[in-house]
Amino acid sequence: MDNTQAIFEKLKIELLKHHSKKFKEDFLDLHNYDQGRFFGELTREERLLVYKYLDPDELADTFDELDDEPDLIAEYLDEMAPSYAAALLNGMYDDNEADILGAVRNDKLHKLLSYMQPVDAARVRQLLKYEEKTAGALMTTEFISVAVDTTVGSAMNQVKQEAQYAETISYIYVVNESNQLIGVISVKDLIVNPDDVFIKRIMNTNVVSVRDDEDQTEIAAQIRDYNFIAIPVVDERNKMLGIITVDDIIDVIDEESAQDYSRLAGVNSEDMSENPWKAVRSRIPWLVTMLFLGLISAMVISQFQNVLDKFGVLAVFITLITGTAGNAGTQSLAVAIRRLANDEEGDSVFKLILNEVITGILIGLLTGIAIFAVILFWQKNMVLGIIVGAAMSGAIFVANLVGTLIPIIMEKLGMDPVVASGPFISTLSDITSILIYFNIATICLANFY
Amino acid sequence: MDNTQAIFEKLKIELLKHHSKKFKEDFLDLHNYDQGRFFGELTREERLLVYKYLDPDELADTFDELDDEPDLIAEYLDEMAPSYAAALLNGMYDDNEADILGAVRNDKLHKLLSYMQPVDAARVRQLLKYEEKTAGALMTTEFISVAVDTTVGSAMNQVKQEAQYAETISYIYVVNESNQLIGVISVKDLIVNPDDVFIKRIMNTNVVSVRDDEDQTEIAAQIRDYNFIAIPVVDERNKMLGIITVDDIIDVIDEESAQDYSRLAGVNSEDMSENPWKAVRSRIPWLVTMLFLGLISAMVISQFQNVLDKFGVLAVFITLITGTAGNAGTQSLAVAIRRLANDEEGDSVFKLILNEVITGILIGLLTGIAIFAVILFWQKNMVLGIIVGAAMSGAIFVANLVGTLIPIIMEKLGMDPVVASGPFISTLSDITSILIYFNIATICLANFY
């Protein structure tokens, strides 16, 4: 890491001293990802020097690594001569190119497209039409396909010629005369087989592909399950359109897991704007929904106002009981979601519920006894200890059950169990906890006082 | 999907009717992942037939896809003749082989190793020594390396011979006479360069590698950032030991994101045992910690017992205020964590805090006004409405601030902000919410009654 920073410093000095040749040499020696990091540290003036010293094709490889920041790149493009910008875009993989052009202002977009080869411009326009987060929006059209009636030798020659433009050569796709995907071979197959073997004989016809309108989450699951380096994208007629590579899918998986966490809190992760008004607009709906769900609990408590008036100390423990039960329910939820993610079904779901029931009883008892002891020691009140201890046990048992059942039901209804379960479980567990607490209190107080 | 099930049914029939040749042909036509799914559906008797009809090498490819269930495979091995089991393990990639042998009982392990070639057994024993979740435990030794003084042509010949044993041929690693890693070339480089070019001239010497004791999370970050298909693993002397491939890293990323979620709820994700006692032992510590933190809130409430006795309806809204403030704090937390994950620093952290302050004031005001209106309508009590509304505004403002500051502080202290922040924020926000609520109530009641 320190080493990289030292190289970056050296590069900056070369840049500012206008040692253009040395700079170019050392810069191109870096891995593309490090080139991207270096470029990100530069000032506007330093960047203008880079555009002077590097060919657009060379910088294109750097920019391919900045593919998660299309808005930033769109700003960089503004600093360049349009012809340089167009050439640079042209040198990038076209999935990244389309992402960036999607972030460029409309007037600028037309200008850039006018500087491109008509055929490239048309291809990019086509990619820009796909909806975000679909296979079409993720794919690149830079793949290698061969005709079904070629031999290994001539396929290899084709790979030699097209390799530098292809995003991966791990798979070579086999198409018929209508450009329909009918098979796949790996570069390994090409290397180990003799030149005169026909592709048809060695290709795998059981090829897994995705449709251009398929959602990225589904595609991520397939790449993960099948351990692919890339997956082909086809249209409704099975015509080969492009490929999605595993590096883009890793970004999708990362993004989705961050999104799940944000959505749990009702925050729209794509709208991480720095504008407080927008933040308010994005957060208020979930917050107010939860507020109104919380009002149900408040209404239930107000039904027990007469018990509270007689025995005011009960109020002290409401939050403790609802909070602890909520925590227990969240634990059950976490376990249930993981089990469901592992695709367990049938018997196993029943076993999961049974286990949670037993776990809930055990945890409820232990926690109830603990809080009983604490209250006996703190408040010196046996009846209060019994009420809170018993209520805690019951509330935890119910919360565990709710935390297990709700995600199972959500999944059966086809909803995402991670995101939808949280609010329901906290609200339901709050209400049942309060009901259990005040009913136990009413019974005990009637018997003891 | 339906199509696959139909094929599975057909395969089962072939199996039970002892059409061994047809079964073998159709089974091997499936993608390895689907072979694994099919195999997972079989009964013990059906599996015994599979061991009869398939060579161990053929089934090895299937078992390589079941790499996330080493315990299950260890059970399958028990069903096979030891010589078949040893041959099957030998046919698997050795990272998976080591995982499975790690799950096998000790007596069985020695028996299996005794059936292997001594050199293979020694290699697996070596892999078994690595600690879980390190590069050494994840890596496979089935990579291709070439000497630095070879030509493209002879390297290509070596690839042809070794390809079927290598887990990937995307990269060919270049080593010196002491087996130290000094460069890397891609299979693309081999294909496009003429046969007589020396590897030394075209290799990339700026090769990114990881040490065998490095943690899997770090490795995942590098593979993601550099968009690698595989990363080489070296020892402390830079000797080449193995490679880690991107498919294993996707599993790591998946696992880590599931873990984060579970750890948020204090559930140990690795101990997803079906034994309720173990579940209790794993969940109770966090739950009891949270219970005692919750007791602090209860003690704070009990300090205001006199206010509660005079104005019992206040008890109705404690949970609502702490709950809503907690939700608002969680939203800020989610935003802060995402921003921190994007590595923002300096100015930007200050801006994040400022934005959250403004957002907190706005959301607090809006929510306060909403709850004021609800209480006015429901309880017909202007003073209660003012108390709850004002307390809600203040509590949300503080919770937002806490939800932003705690993860920033956690990160500065080198702790994982996702996992450690949750409990602190809910406890802190509960206490401040209660203090704000009852202090406002005390002031208002002193003035109005």
TrEMBL record, chains A, B:
The CBS domain, residue ranges: 139-201, 203-259
Transmembrane segments: 284-301, 313-337, 357-378, 385-410
CDD domains noted in UniProt: CBS_pair_Mg_transporter
Pfam families linked: CBS, MgtE, MgtE_N
Cellular component, GO, one term: plasma membrane
GO molecular function: magnesium ion transmembrane transporter activity; metal ion binding
Membrane topology annotation: Multi-pass membrane protein
Gene3D superfamilies according to UniProt: CBS-domain, MgtE N-terminal domain-like, SLC41 divalent cation transporters, integral membrane domain
Main location: membrane
Keyword annotations of the record: CBS domain, Cell membrane, Magnesium, Membrane, Metal-binding, Transmembrane, Transmembrane helix, Transport
Location(s) in or outside the cell: Cell membrane; Membrane
Family: Belongs to the SLC41A transporter family.
Subunit comment: Homodimer.
Role noted for this protein: Acts as a magnesium transporter.
Protein name stated in the entry: Magnesium transporter MgtE
Organism of derivation: Pediococcus pentosaceus (strain ATCC 25745 / CCUG 21536 / LMG 10740 / 183-1w)
